[in-house]
## 1
Amino acid sequence: MMQLLLLLAISPLISGLIKTLKARMQTRRGPGVLQFYRDLYKLFRKGMVIPDTASWIFTAAPYIVFVTTLMAGLMLPMTSTKAPLDLFGGVLAIVYLLGLGRFFLALAGMDTGSSFGGLGSSREMTISALAEPAMMLAVFTVAIAANSTNLSEVARSAVGQNWRFFAPAQMLACAALYLVLIAETGRIPVDNPATHLELTMVHEAMILEYSGPHLALIEWAASMKQLVLMTLLVNVFWPFGLASGPSVPGALGGLGWLLLKLGLLSCSIVLVETTNAKLRLFRVPEMLAVAFTLGTLALVSTFLF
Amino acid sequence: MPSVEALFSVGLAVYLAGAVAGLAAWRRPAAARVAGFALALAGTLLQGAASAMALVQGAGATWTLPLGTALFPWTVRLDPLSAYFNLALAFLACAVSVYSFGYVRHMEGKKNVGTLVFFYNLLLLSLSLVFTAANAFSFLVAWEVMALVAYCLVSFEHEKAEARRAGVVFLVMSHAGTGLLLVAFLVLATTARSLDFARFHLLGSQLPLLDQGAVFLLFFLGFGVKAGIVPLHIWLPDAHPVAPSNVSALMSGIVIKTGIYGMARVFFDFFGPPPLWAGTVVLSIGVASALLGVLYALMEHDLKRLLAYHSIENIGIILMGFGAALVFRALGHGNLAAVALVAGLYHTFNHATFKGLLFLGAGSVLHGTGTRNMEHMGGLIRRMPATALFFLVGSVAISGLPPLNGFVSEWLTYQALLAGFGSTESLTRMMFPISGALLALTAALAAACFVKAFGIPFLALPRSEAAAAAKESPVSMQIGMGILAAGCVALGVGATWFVRLFDPITSQALGLRVSSSLVAANGLAMAAGTGRGGTVSTAGIAVLGLALGGIAAILVMLRSRGARRVSGPTWDCGLPGLTADNQYTATAFSKPLRMIFSALYRPRREIQAEYEVSPYYPTAIRFESDIEPTFEKRFYDPLQRSILELARRMRGIQAGSIHAYLAYIFVTLILLLLFGVRG
C-alpha cells in the first residue's frame, strides 16, 4: 500500500525534476518541479473529446496502461529489499506487463483513424521490439548472478555481497540497461518528449487524440513507467540504502537513498538529453544494437572474470 | 463408469460414422453438414473424456483395434504423452466442430459439403490414430492417411490455382518427410526385431554412435517437415490459408503438432540421454524458426497467411523448450530437463488454443467481408463486436502477454533457459541466454505483428465497401470461438492447476515429477522449479488488475463528474474531413521493420506516377512492393532445377527398348541374389 502511494506520488516529481534540470542546463527557467502535479490536477477536471471513429479500445486503453504500469511498479523493491508483489512476478512479469500496456496503447493509437496514431503505434512497437532483447540480456546477467528473476531476491543477493558494481559484468549490463531506459522512456536520442506535432515523434503521436482524464492517466502512467525503469536500474545495480525489513526508520532511510539515486540518474539523463541531437528513426536500431552487444559482453564476462 | 478403451473406441467409431454420413448425404448439403459436424462433436467429447481419464490415471492403456492384419496388428496405446496430445486435439476439434455448423453453411450449393464433412471427420480420425498408434506400422499408415486427407482439404477449393499449387507442394514435402521417417523406423525395427513402440523404448541410445546421430536427424527432419521448422517450412504458409477456415484452424492448431508429438515420442521415449549436439541443433533450429517465422509474418497482409507464419514462430518456441530439455538431459540435469519439457508441451497446448481461435476469427472475418486482405478491412469492431473481442483475446495470448496462456509457457521457457546458464561450465552455456534474448525479440515482434493484425482489420474506418457492409457471424461460430477464448483465459489464469497434468508425462519420459516445484504459495503462483528461480502469478495479476482498474475507473468517474464528455471528429490537420485513405495501412505499419531487416527481406519497390502538368501534381500513382522469398529462391529453386536436370539425364536409360529392360531386370536379380547370399 505504501509503495502504491509512493509510485503515484513521486513519479510526477521525477518527471518535473528532469524537465526543470533540462531547462536550467539550457539556461531557461523552466516550469518548476511541481508543474506535472498541476497538469494532472487540471486534466482530471477537464472534459473529454472522444473521436467518433474510436471504439471501446480507445476508452479502455488508458486504464489498462495505468494499471499494468502500477502493478509492474509493485513488483519492484523500492525502499526495502522486499517488493510488495514479489510473489506475483519478477522482472519478466514487469517487462511483459509494460508490454501489455504498450499493446493496448498502440491499438488505441490506431483506433482513432488518424495517420498520426498509426505512425506512432508502428514506431513505438518497432523500437520497443528492438529494445527488448538488450533489456533481457542485461536482466539475465543480474538474474543469473542472483539465481532468480524475482527482484527481491536479486536485491537481497546484491546487498549481501555489497557493492559489486565494478565487476565488468555489472558495469556492462548497467550500460546496456541505461541505453534501453533511454529508448523505452522516449528520451532524446530516440524520441522527443517535448514536441507534439513533428514527424519525429513516437509516443506523443500515438496519444494525440486523448484529452482530459484519459490523457492524465496516460501521462501519469508514462511517468510511472519512467520511474519503474529508473528504479529498476538504480536498485539492481546500486542497491545501497535498501532496508532489509519492514521498519519505519528503514523505510524512511530507503526512501532518502532512493530519491538521491533517482536524482543522480535524472541528472545523467538530462546531460544526455541536452548534449545529443535526436537520431533519425533508422539510426535507433544501431543504438539498440550497441545495447545488445553490451548485454552479450556482460554475460560473457560473468564467466570470464 | 465406462472404461478408457470403450470411450476411445466409440469415439473413433463416431468419427467414422460422421465421415460416412457426409458421403451418404452428399446430395442434401444441410443434412450432411448437421449430421457430420454433430457426429464429429460427439466424437471429440468421447475422445476428450477418454484422453482426460487416461492422463489423470497416468497408466497407459494398450489394446488392439480390429483394423490391422494378423501380421501387423493395429495396437493403440493411450499413455500420458499420447493422451495429452489427443486431449489437445479433442479440445480444439470440439470448438472447431461447433464453429463449423455456422461456417460451412455458406458453402451449401456452391461446394460439395458432403465431401468436406467426409474429409473433416476422416482427418480427426487419422489424427487421433497418429497420436495413439503403438507400433511403427499403424503409425505410418495413420500418418499417410492424415497427409492424404489434409491434401484433399487443402485443395478443397480446387477451382483456385493457388489451392491446387499449395496442395501439391504440401504433398511433395509431406512425402519427403515420410520417406525420412520410414528409413528411421526401419533402422529401429531391425535392431529391435519388432515394430512395437514399447520395444523401441530407449533403443535409440543403444545404437552405434554414428547410427544414433543418423536416426536422430532423420526423425528430426522427417517430423520437422510436418511441424514446419525452418528451412522445411515453405509449404506451410501456402497450404494453411487456402483451406476452408475451420480446416485451417485444425491444420495450424493440431496437424502440425503431429510433428511435435513425433519429436517428443522420439526424443524422450525412443532415446535416452542424447548426445549434446542433438539438443544444440534442436535449440538452434527452434530459435531460427521462431525469429524467421515472426519476421515473415510481419510482412504479410493476408490475414490467414500471417497467422500461418506465426505457426512457424510458435513451433520454434516449442522446440526451444524441447532443445533445452535435450541439452539438460545430455548434461544429466533431470529436473531442468523436466521443466523445459513442460514448457514445450504447455506451449503446444496453448498454441493449439490461441492459433485455433485466431484462425476461426480470421474465418469469421472472411465470412463477413469476403476478403483475406487486411488492406481492404477496417472498423470491423463495430460491425462484428463478438469476433473482434475473441480475436483480441487470441492476439493478446499469442503475443505472450499476461495474464493469458501464451505468457505462462513463455515464462516457463525463459526460466528453463536461464537455469541452463548454470548447468554447464563450457561455452555451450552462452547459447541459453542468447536464445532467451532472441525469444524476447520474437515475442516483442509478435506483439508488433498483432497490433497490426488486430488494429488494421478491426479498428478505425472501413477501407472498402465490403468491410463497411460486414455482418456479425452466426451464433454457432461465436460459440466455437468463445470456447477457445475461454480456454486461453483458463490456461493462463489457472496455470498452477494445469501444470499438475504434466506429472504423468514427465514421470513417463524422465522418471521425474516436477509439478510440486513449479507451484508456490499453495497454488497461488507459478515457480521456476529450481528452488529460487522466481515466481509469477497470472491469477494474482488478473484479479489485482481488474480490481485496480475498477478502482481507477470509479475514481476518474467521481472526479470528472459533471465534466463534458463529447464525441468529435479526429484531428485531420485542418484538411476537409478524414477518410479511410488517410489511415495507416498494414504496409505502412510494418515499413520501419522492413527497412531495418532489409538484409533479410531484400524488399523491392516500384512507384510509377502519372502526371499532366507538373510532377508535383500526379494524377495517378501506382505503387508496388514485395519482398524476396529467400528460401524458395536460394534453396528450393536450385534444388528443383537439379532434380529436373537429373531426371532429364536419366531419360537416357529409359529408351523404350524391351531388350534393355530385360537386361535391367536380369542385372537387378543377380545383384539381389548376391546380397541375399552375403546376408
Note: Residues 275-553 of chain B form one domain.
## 2
Amino acid sequence: MSTYLGMPSIPVYGTGNLHASESFPKAAHRELGNAQLRANLGHATHTIRDKRIAVVSELPDWEQLRDAGSAIKESVMARLPELLEQFEKTFTARGGVIHWARDATEANEIVAGLIRETGETEVVKIKSMATQEIGLNEYLEEQGIAAFETDLAELIVQLDHDKPSHILVPAIHKNRSQVRDIFLREMEGVDPDLTNEPARLAGAARAHLRRKFLTAKVAVSGANFALADSGTLAVVESEGNGRMCLTLPETLITVMGVEKLLPTWQDLEVFMQLLPRSSTGERMNPYTSLWTGVTEGDGPQNVHLVLLDNGRSAALADEKGRSALHCIRCSACMNVCPVYERTGGHAYGSTYPGPIGAILSPLMTGIQAEENNSLPYASSLCGACYDACPVKINIPDILVHLRSVDVDSKRGKKKIPTQMDVGMNAASWALSSGKRLGLLEKGLPLGRLAAGPDKKITKLPGIAAGWTQSRDIPAPPSQSFRDWWKKEHRTPEPDAAPAASQDQENQP
Amino acid sequence: MSAREEILERIRTALKDSPVAPEIPREYRAASQLDEEALIELLVDRLIDYKAQVSVVDNAEVPARIAELLADAGSYVVPTGLDAGWLTGLELEHDSRRRQDSAAAPLSVAELDGIDAVVTGSAVAVAETGTIILDGSPNQGRRAITLVPDHHICIVKTTDITGILPEAMRRIDGTRPLTMISGPSATSDIELERVEGVHGPRKLDVIIAR
C-alpha cells in the first residue's frame, strides 16, 4: 500500500489501466490494417447510431434533460467533499461499509482483503469500468481468487483472453461468427452444433453461467449512480447478470469512482432518462437495480463500497478539464466518432477509449504519463461527440486545451528548436501581418514550378512529409486570393477598400 | 493521514478556485397529460415492443387469466402478500403446484431454480418507457423470486400506471430494494442488436388489471 506523509502534493495521478503504452498514431496504424475489425465496428456503430437518434428524437424535452444533467453534474463537482461525507453517513446508517482507496493498488488490496475474509476463492462480477481501470481481475488472479465476468460481452472478451475495446459493449470488435468460434473453443460443455445466431449465443452464455450465479457467495460490481441524500446505489444493465450478482450472493463489494455521486433521489429521474437512450438506444434498459445498504431478508447482508480516487482528484484540479468527470459512461461519443469507428478501442491503450477516453485518460494520469499525450490529438475536432453527449461535456474544447497542456509541458525541454518550432515561429511571423503574408504569397509560382506538369506536389521535405505520405497537394494557384481580389475590384469601383488593409484589421 | 482524509483533502485542494454550484434548470417534463385509456394503450405498445406478452383485463378476470398463463407451469411461487383475490380461480385455490415465499420464510436459491414461474404485483409502471417498478412490498416479495424462475407473470393495476419516469419516481421510496423491469432479459452485446432472453426471466407476461 502506498504511504504518504504530511499534506498531499496535488495533483496525485491515477495508476492502473489508464495508459497508452504506444502512441495513438502507431497503434491506430496497426489496427487500421485489420479489415475485419473495421467491418465489425462500422456495422455496430452505425446500428447503434440509428437507434440512439430514433429514441432521442421521441422525447420533446431531450435538450432540457441534457441541460439539467449537465448542471447537476457541475454542481456535484463543486460540492464533492460535502456530498461524499453526506453519502458516507447515509450509506453507513443503512448497514453498508465504506472503504476509501487512493489509487488502483489500494483498491485492489481492499477488495482482495474483503474476499479473503469470506473464505471464498471465487467471485462473480458485473461489468464495471472502475474494476477494469484498476486491473482487479488480474490482481485477484495473482492472489489465487478467480473472478468470473458475467456480462455477455465481458465473458466473450475474458474467454478469448482479449481486452475490452468499448465501455458499453467490450466485444464490439467481434462479430457473431467470431463469438461462436470463441465459445466453441473455450466454453466447457458447449453444444458443438452452436450456430452464430445471437439468440443461440446468448442461450449458451446463460447455460454456462447459471451454476455460478446460483452458488456464488461473493459478487463484485461497479455502480452507475450513488445518491448522497439516501445512500442508494444503482446498477443499470440488460441481461439480468447484474440482478443475479446483486441479489443472490451473501457479500456484495462495489467499486465506484468518487465522481459518480448525485445529490438527490430526484436527480435520478434525469439520468435514468438520459443514460439508456444514449447508451443502447433503448427507451429503457431491461433491468435497473437500486439498493440502499442492507435490506433484512432480501439480498446480500454484507454490503461494501470502495470509493476510488485514482486520478479523479487530479482531473478535478484542471479547471478547464474537470467536466470530463461528468461522464456517465454511456458510450454515445465513441459510437458517433469517425476516429473510433475506424481504429476501434484498443488503439487508445486506456480502459477509456474514444473521445471521452482521449480526455479522461490524460487528465487522470497527467499528460506526461507514457504515451497519453498522443491521445488529445486522436480527433478531427468535428464535434459529433459533444452533440451526442447526454451531459454536454465539451469534448473538443478539452481536447484543444489538453493539446496546449502537452505543448506547454515540452516547452524549454529541448535546447535545439524542432522543425515544428521553426515552422510555428515562421507561421507566427507571417500570419501576424497582411503585408508579410502578401510578401510570402509572391512565392506561389515557385510552388507551381515544384508541382511540375502533373500539377501535383507528391513529396514534401521534413515533418511536412507526413502530409504527403498518403495524399498529394494540388499545385498552388498562380496568384493569391488577395491579388485576385485587388485586380477584380480595382475598377470600376475606385472607392472599394484595399483588401490588404482590411485584412490587417481582421488580424488578431 | 487516512485514505479518507487524504482523498477529501486532495479534492478540496483541487477545488481551490471555489467553483459555484449552478442552479439546476428543471424545465423537462414533470408530468404527462394522458388519460387512463391513453396510458394503457402506450404501456401496452411499449411492452410489446420489448417482446413482453400483455393482456388488459377487468379485475374480475385476473384470476382466470393467471390460471391460463400458469396452465403449463409444473410449479410456481407467489409472495405471501400477493392479493389473495387474484388466486381465487377454481384451479388455483388449492393448487399443489404453488409455493409461497417471504423474507421470514424464504425459499433457497436451489428451490427457486426448480420452480417454473412466479406471480407478483407491482409498485408502479411507466407507460412511455414500458417500465414496471418492483419495490419489494409484500405483494411483490424478495428480489430473488422474480429473478430465478424463467417465467414472470406481473400484474399492473391501471391506477399504478404513470405517463413518464419522473411521475413514477416521485411515487416510490428510493430506499427500498428496487428493480425496474422493461421487458424480459435481453442483451445488445453481439453486434449491438437486441436479443431477448439471457439470465433473467426469458418470458414476461404483464396483466393490466382495470
Note: Confidence is low (pLDDT under 50) at residues 1-5, 500-508 of chain A.
